[in-house]
Amino acid sequence: MNLKKSVGIAVVLGIAFIAIWELYVRSLGYVSELDDNKALWAIQRAKVDKLSSDDIVLLGSSRVHFDIQLNEWEEATGVRPIMLASDGTTPTPIFKEIVEETDFNGTVVIGVAPALFFSQPGKGFMWDRPTKRLRHYYEQTYAQRANHYLSLPLERTFSFLNASEEEWSDDIDLKTLVNNIKIGNRLPEGRPPFNNFGFVDADRNVTMFEKTKTDTAFANGIVKIWLGGIERRPTPVVDSVILYYQPLIEKLKKRGGNAIFIRCPSSGKLREKENEIYSRTVCWDELLLQSGLNGYHFEDYTQLNQFTCPEESHLFSTDARIFTKELVKILLEDQQISNLKTR
Amino acid sequence: MLFNSLSFVVFLIVVLALYYSKILSWTGKKRMLLLSSYVFYGMWNPPLVILLWISTVVDWTAGKKLATLENKKKRKLWLLLSMVVNLGFLGFFKYGNFLLENFTAILQSIGIEYEALPMDIILPMGISFYTFQTMSYTIDMYYRKGERARTFLDFALYVTFFPQLVAGPIVRAKDLITQFYEPKKATIHQFLWGLFLLTIGVFQKVVLADALLSSTSDKVFDAGKLLHGVDAWIGTLAFSGQIFFDFAGYSTCAIGIALMLGIILPDNFRYPYASIGFSDLWRRWHISLSSWLRDYLYIPLGGNRHGITRMYVALMLTMLLGGLWHGAAWTFVIWGALHGIYLVGERLLKKLIPIKINAWNGIFLAFLTYTLVNITWVFFRAKGFATANDMITSMFFLNPDGSKILGIAEIGKVVIVITGLFLCHWFMRNTSMKEVSLKTPSWVLGVGWAVLFFLICLAQGSGEQFIYFQF
């Protein structure tokens, strides 16, 4: 056995295999992108501890994540918000943590995606996911931090590095590829494939994939997930959620901070379902009334209500930019946020 | 720091560069290895390096005294000090919560209302491994079985040597410290073979354990409902493969990394799923722990020197404590107890039915052993007795209405991997990877190596922790 010869063959072939695989996945339309994982989130969370009263923290689910564009916000106000919205989550545990564990006295913008927001505090995946991120923020080891920083340049370079914490159906890591194989019908039909439809940059600003707008079949696949999800949700929990927020809002205001609720657009059948299950008077209006906070519902402003979401739940990036600019204008007019550019 | 992480790749490159540079003397290299080992451990939780320091200083001092003192009483006291410190750490950090829970349960069972505040104790990574390693040194010193470490640096490096620090192999002082006395340098063949072992180990962990088996095992054991017998079996088989690839993968990485430094660590696994019987199993599974338990627990408890009954008691006690070593829960004790019962049963059966092993009955008996081992894995993996009970009844097909949660493809995946694992162990049981590689053409090994590397990249492991870190 000549190990020098073996290692030589292994290096050459190993690089060749990777190169062929990389070219193949690129030919399928995959691009190099960052994983919007707990480590990326934790970096943004760490920034909250150093913010001033002029700063903005964005909380919520994927709607805030997709619909609010950080560049446009910064361009209009001179302040780059911290994006802490996480897909498929309620903002409540993060808001609680920011109020109770930090001295932040700026403005917290809280996105209200009804099906996720009006859910029982402390229960369900919408609560567990942000809690896991918080736990990671507090418990991450130096090794985990180092691994994350080392992985960033690789993720930015190679399209085949596509495994995500979200576990999208179209991830191309070995586990997903194997788990996607379906044979026979031993199990009833499960959830339809849930494919990734956007990518994040280092500060978690999201850009929706072009194909979400151009490929109707792709978009309809995602719509199926939203509609299936909303059908399975339990009855809205309004009073408990509001009660949960009240002392937190009071505490934040006492130290000079502010919070604003926003309701980002939805379209089509999903919007119909949302309005039917989470009626505005019972949920949104009651939230504003009892919390005493200002809220901005897209339906109340023509400039915010001019968009159609390609997959019924999130704005396409060009629309998201316009939406952000218009929302910021409204918030500035109402003196809810500061404009450092004109100060 | 995990072997299957990017930070470890950078760490290893820096360590190897310094180790093979000409700027450091041998003592300088050992200091660098020691410092690197503390960095390796501290990257997880820096304050807990202090525990390593305390263990090191206490056992170094105890070892020194035990080697020089003649007074029996004083020698006993030094041994006792070492035991108290090491077992005290282990008891507090690993069993603190468990003891408190059981204390509370006992009080409540006799009608005393008592609620203890949770202690929130962090379990220091690998504490069971390094405390057993340092304890073996002082016990050997007490029985004058070995030579004491020549320098504090050699001893500190023995306690902390990063390749095997957090999950073994648990190495005896005579096998490792002596290697630190003279300058060590891997030959090119050793270095490349070490690199190959590292690749195999990472492949076992990232591809086989994490990418192919863990999700099935997690799905089954976390199902929270009664399962169909097939699903329960497949989940258990998946776990049997996962834990083997996870732990053997770590040991293979450790042996490979040490070899790249020119240091030889002993084998920790020898194709255990092809064991014929349970005595054979424990000579093949986690060899460094089973030999530790044999030498420092089973033999001191009397071993086979005081009659059959005493031997069985010693065997059972050893296995029960071995179970508890793996985790602070009664399910682990049951796991140990089952292995104890298997060992006792096997010895009794051997007396009654002498069997001559050949290839035909051998594979059948190996399969039977593996099947019985799978029963024990249920208690090892289940989070509580309720889950274990549900799983066992399902595995005996006593829950015909149990839920089906695995698709045919997933069942097929586990069957293919586990059949491959079992056959591989069977065909390798009397040989070694080294021997097989010597007969393999270089180009075949090269192609295989490239495939392993490609699959590791394709798996994109997110740095999942090794199961045995929690022990």
TrEMBL record, chain A:
Keyword Membrane part of the UniProt annotation: yes
Transmembrane segments: 7-24
Lineage: superkingdom: Bacteria
Keywords, sorted A to Z: Membrane, Transmembrane, Transmembrane helix
Protein name: Uncharacterized protein
Species this protein is from: Dokdonia pacifica
Source organism phylogeny: Bacteria, Pseudomonadati, Bacteroidota, Flavobacteriia, Flavobacteriales
TrEMBL record, chain B:
Gene Ontology cellular component annotations, sorted alphabetically: plasma membrane
Entry's Gene Ontology BP terms: alginic acid biosynthetic process
Cell location: Cell membrane
Family affiliation: Belongs to the membrane-bound acyltransferase family.
Keywords from the named record: Acyltransferase, Cell membrane, Membrane, Transferase, Transmembrane, Transmembrane helix
Short name of one Pfam family: MBOAT
Its membrane topology: Multi-pass membrane protein
Protein name, UniProt field: Alginate O-acetyltransferase complex protein AlgI
Coiled-coil regions listed in the entry: none
Organism: Dokdonia pacifica
GO MF terms held by the record: acyltransferase activity
TM region positions: 7-26, 38-56, 77-96, 116-139, 151-171, 191-213, 243-265, 311-338, 359-380, 405-428, 440-461
